[in-house]
Amino acid sequence: MKRSILVVLVLLASVTGLRAQVGGAWSFNYAMAQPLGSTADFTENMSFLGFVVEGRKFIPGEPLTVGGELGWQTFYQRVEG
Q1: DSSP track, 37-79
Q2: ∠ CA 13-3-54 to the nearest 5 degrees?
Q3: 3-class SS at 81?
Q4: pTM confidence score
Q5: Domain ranges of the chain
Q6: For the chain, how far is it from start to end, CA to CA, in angstroms?
Q7: Which pLDDT tens digits describe the chain residue by residue (81 residues)?
Q8: Which of 9, 22, 41, 73 is the most buried (most CB within 10 A)?
Q9: How far is C-alpha 31 from the geometric centre of its chain's CA atoms?
């Protein structure tokens, strides 16, 4: 099961590189986070439940890209009582 998931992830990563050649690029990434600042007051546990989606468009004739990024991270703290 783990091997098949790894194969799928490698294939998706290689397809993303090919798509960049046609004027744009998209990526979907798994994210981990450590709480800092006021979030650390709420929970001290690392979060392994996050993702980031990024899209970019290459501007024709210019060495520039325009894009955006959207991410989501979830923190949990077990409370007794």
Answers
A1: THHHHH--S-B-EEEEEEEEEEPTTSS-EEEEEEEEEE-----
A2: 25
A3: coil
A4: 0.58
A5: 2-74
A6: 38
A7: 777 787 777 777 766 555 545 678 889 999 999 999 888 888 888 999 999 999 999 888 888 999 999 999 998 887 787
A8: 73
A9: 5
